[in-house]
Amino acid sequence: MTILDKHAAQRLVYDTLHSHGLDVRFDAVLSPTEGMLSGQRKILLGTNNYLGLTFDPECIEDAIEATRSQGTGTTGSRLLNGTYGGHVRLEEALAEFYGRQHAMVFSTGYQANLAMLSALVGRGDHLLLDADSHASIYDGSRLGHGEVIRFRHNNPDDLYKRLRRLAGQPGDRLIVVEGIYSMLGDTAPLKEIAAVKRETGAYLLVDEAHSMGVLGETGRGLAEAAGVEADVDFIVGTFSKSLGSVGGFCVSNNPDFDVLRLVCRPYMFTASLPPGVVASTLKALSRIQSEPALRANLMRNARHLYDGLQAMGFQTGPEANPIVAVAMPNQETAVAFWKLLLESGLYVNLSIPPATPTDVCLLRTSASAAHTPQQIDTALAMFADVGRRLGLLDTQKRRAGGVA
Amino acid sequence: MRQIRQLALVEDTVGPPEKVVREDISAIFEQVLGHPVKINDQTDIVEDLGMDSLGVMNFVMAIEDFYDISIPLDRIAQIQTVGDLIHAVDDLRSGTN
Questions:
Q1: Which of the two ends of chain A, N or C, has the fewest CB atoms closer than 10 A to its terminal CB?
Q2: A233 and A147 housed in the same domain
Q3: How do residues B17-38 score in pLDDT, each as one tens digit?
Q4: Which ipTM did the prediction report?
Q5: By the CB < 8 Å criterion, does A152 face chain B?
């Protein structure tokens, strides 16, 4: 008997993952698209490294320079000794990129959501979450003191209905949606959600973690792509995907925004980002603005991957975004498929419930601007080969009435 | 789900039912689970009916549609038995939540 006995079920899952070799540890990462595992070179197709900036020479140089001149860490909170010139410059650069008056930087994207959701919604307020929200959004909702209501995934009518039920009750309402949902790669119907927001007088927060640098004319995300930036009161995002480092942020035009620095506990009671991370992030932010070709390459690769998997008969998510999820018929097949892909030389994410929506097992892939068309072709060939070996493609084609 | 939607539509025209009736809840359980269930106030929704987290979520949303309410997440976390559920729905509908 130990204090951890209450987690016996999860312990069993962990032991199973470990015994199947599903807890991957890379011996070395060679580039944004290749890593070494058990002495073998693997193509990385599950990294969220959308623009491939983790090995960008300019970002690396700036990180080295900042580390040499300012040290490895700040060892303190933003409110005490942890605010350097770089943190302020990064906030200014983010505000300018989004055309907003204010920006705040957090030590992780997870903390950005914890901080914003718990600070924006107080006692007597209501938080309306998409049912498929990321764990950081659910956790942020629990850190605050408002009432939390879930609406059906990507369903503006259901959201409207729930806001209508609150009519006459005092307090603010905050709607929270994501630009691109991390498991299936689908986008929020933001135009319709913005219309609901306007009609009901609610506030709107969009988490652009997977869509920043990916969607929109200038890479500002889904709000830009949908043409509703003016309706979005708060944009939250992360540096750990398209910007290739770690950290989170929020931008807004709210005139009282800076009070959040004294209200957001996940901002106050943690050490600020190290100078090297701040410097590489600043450079990455300038790279995504000066090099739209990165985004064009990413979307070309995403389309290539999505169309290729669909053409083989795999069941994918609804949109050709950089996250392409392949549905597996059951967990056993998902694990077997994932292992055979890895043996072939391809790393993808194995996603099983409860991390996935609607109890589905997924092989989650993500394209990068850094993939070559040949790497995507190789990955597709591996999917086809494993799919045939497991009898999956034939079955799917037969079911669809096609010719095997 | 179709039958629940139809029920909800009918209710829309005449307003939600006045009192939470165990038979309505039982019918919604049957729709979500796909088979008949026998319930009483002490029935444990997860243990006795074998619902997983997704099933519970679908069930809660069906209940919310039927009674035209939203059950906040912290209230859902407190609901273990059918009796708890009936109590919560009654509270929310009478505005004494």
A1: N
A2: yes
A3: 666 778 888 889 888 888 888 8
A4: 0.80
A5: yes
